[in-house]
Amino acid sequence: MLKNRKSRNIIIISVLIVAAFAFAFAACGGGGDSGDDDTPNEPESMTTKSALQYFYDENVKAGWNLGNTLDAVNVPSAASETAWGNPAATQALINGVKAQGFDIVRIGCTWIGHVGGAPNYTISQARLARVAKVVNMVHNAGMKAIINIHHDGNYTEPPNTWGFLKFAEVERGEANEAQVKAQLTAMWTQIANYFINYGDYLIFETMNEVHSGNWGGGASDAEQDRLFDWNQTALNAIRATGGNNATRFVAVPGLGSTEPGIVLAAHSRGKLLPNDGANGVSKLIVSVHFYAPSAYTVASATPTQGNEPLRHTIETEELANIDTEAAHLKETFFDNGIAVYYGEWGAPTDVRSSMDTEIKNTHINYISCVAAAARANGIVPIIWDDGGEFKMLERSNGAPKNGLWKDTLTAMITAINDTTDPGDNNGGEGVNLGSYVYGTAENGIDTNYQQAVWSLTSANVTIAKTAETKLVLKLTNAPSAGMQLVWQGPTNEIWWKAADILDDYGVPVTGKGTTWNASAKTLTINLEAALEDYASFSDQPNLNLIIAYYGSADISALGITSATLE
Q: In this structure, are 301 and 435 located in the same domain?
């Protein structure tokens, strides 16, 4: 569906392709690449919060795409920052973006032509350094940053002219999937290691718009299953580097256009979010692209045969669908403690900038409606700005030109600021405890994977000791074996006060204030009723809460998506 959005650039760069070329890999820069390494020398701070809580507490509510820049590529030679007509990013540009009211910048990163051959798939240090320099610009301006593997998986014709994520070729049996996954692992290992000391303001996004030619529409379950597997491969590589990357926020897309329907369908089958171990889903973000209706947003302004022409009117029911789609995402993700952002959305502002007043007003209203719906449903909207048809800001200074560009930006930011967000829900009406860590075996050294441990902050200790407080766990899978609720008082060296709350079959123990809601998949535990020696518990200045589950070798089998005190 989104192919037309970039078709103008594809046509331009196709003309520029030369029949033969040669370049030295170590010097494959282009478009402002620099070998200077100004990454942090020591690990920067990382939050223990979930992505949802982090976005709320950090007031991340509006984002901007540095589009057609570090993602631009001279096919089939190399990604080059200026290949598609935009200038190289500067601090002046990024400062201007911040001044317009944005909080987060998505930096699409294409790596074609900057990667060596098998088996190491070594990424050019100059390319990594240039991406780092732009990330630093964003951080210096006081915003969060997202980097990804962007156009290395585009479906284009002829085959094999773009990146290594050859989804269509693998589907047809023309490419080796093991080799694709090996390169995906190698590249994310290198990217993650290069950025390992960056703080929580840097978010990784596994891939972008990978599909077999159908943009995800009408794709088979097998196709989504394959992307799910590739997302797991990327996440595993990132987590394996350790350090800050063990808990870094990672955004995960759906298939192709990753529109709401595609994402929701995948999630309903358990084939969207990969297994993130002890992090549960607290460190994952669902990446959705919203370009509905496509005829109004991404259809071709200069259609050729077979392409859908761009429409400049929008129906009432199409506007209503904006709210409906956002509400479905909230119900499925936000209400269950999972963060969502619109990694791309928008409409061709530049195209309509010279059209009549009615068309302009319709455009402004559309942008306002999407922005407000996102905000009202806890979604962070990150608008697509390609510097061309979808241009909103000038690349020289990050400010919009007078006219439709400025009017659209003003309306969008106003809609976001004037819309009441749903709060820091995190899956319940209470306080989210964040991600758990595994427990420790009796020898004090080895890890006990059957235990989930939360160390309570001083504020949460007070809440936990309040009468009638409940611990509410949202799970992916129903418990089917014994479970204990344990508390520790480290200050007083109280290390194991345990009470059985589920019997050997996963049934709540009578009189322990524990209930299981099968439809909502929530386990609710009244602390006062369930805890062993509640009187001593209430005297503790510091507390750990532990869930010990004996149904598998790893408590992650339960799929704990959130833990809240209510």
A: no
Structure tokens belonging to residue 362: 């319709």
Percent of the chain with pLDDT over 90: 58
pLDDT tens, position by position, 252-289:
999 877 789 999 999 988 999 999 998 888 899 999 99
Domain count, the chain: 2
Q: Name every residue whose Cβ is closer than 8 Å to that of residue 256 and which is 6 or more positions away in sequence.
A: 1, 209, 210, 211, 214, 215, 216, 217, 219, 262
The DSSP line for 416-429 is HHHSPP--S-TTSS
pLDDT band, very low/low/confident/very high, at 58 (cuts 50, 70, 90): very high
- The alpha-helical segments, DSSP class H, found in 38-176 are 51-57, 91-99, 125-140, 167-171
In a domain, 425, yes or no: no
Evaluate the CA torsion angle 557, 561, 565, 566 in order and state its sign: negative
Can you tell me the distance from the alpha carbon of 344 to that of 358, in angstroms, rounded to the nearest whole number?
A: 25
- Are 152 and 299 within one domain? yes
Query: Average pLDDT, stretch 422-451?
Result: 75
Tell me how far CA of residue 342 lies from CA of 115, 325, 534, in angstroms. Answer: 29, 12, 45
User: Cα angle at 432 between 501 and 418, to 5 degrees?
Assistant: 145
pLDDT of residue 161: 55
**DSSP SS3 for 563:** strand
Q: Which residues pair with 540 in a beta bridge?
A: none
Give the model's confidence band at 301: pLDDT under 50 very low, under 70 low, under 90 confident, else very high. Answer: confident
Q: Active-site residue among 209, 259, 325, 389? A: 209
Please indicate whether residue 344 is annotated as part of the active site: yes
Residues listed for the chain? 566
pLDDT tens for each residue of 488-530: 887 767 778 899 999 999 999 998 999 998 878 889 999 999 9
Residue 458, domain member (yes or no)? yes
What is the C-alpha radius of gyration for the chain, rounded to an integer number of angstroms?
25
pLDDT at residue 88 greater than cutoff 60: yes
Q: Is 308 a catalytic site residue? A: no
Nearest to 383 by CA among 365, 402, 409: 409
CB 144 within 8 A of CB 97: no
Residue 526 structural domain: 431-565
Assess contact for 188 and 232: CB atoms under 8 A: no
Mean pLDDT over the full length of the chain: 86
506-512, long-range: CB < 8 A, 24+ apart: 506/478, 506/479, 506/480, 506/481, 506/482, 506/551
Annotated catalytic residue, options 81, 171, 325, 344: 344
Mean pLDDT of 315-327: 94
Confidence check: pLDDT of 8 > 50: no
CB 513 within 8 A of CB 519: no
SS3 301: coil
Tell me the mean pLDDT in the region 533-555: 89
Beta carbons of 347 and 294 less than 8 angstroms apart = no
Contacts of 340 (CB under 8 A, 6+ apart): 285, 286, 288, 329, 330, 333, 334, 378, 379, 380
Confidence band (pLDDT; 50, 70, 90) for 213?
low
**pTM of the full predicted structure?**
0.73
Do both 470 and 331 map to the same domain? no
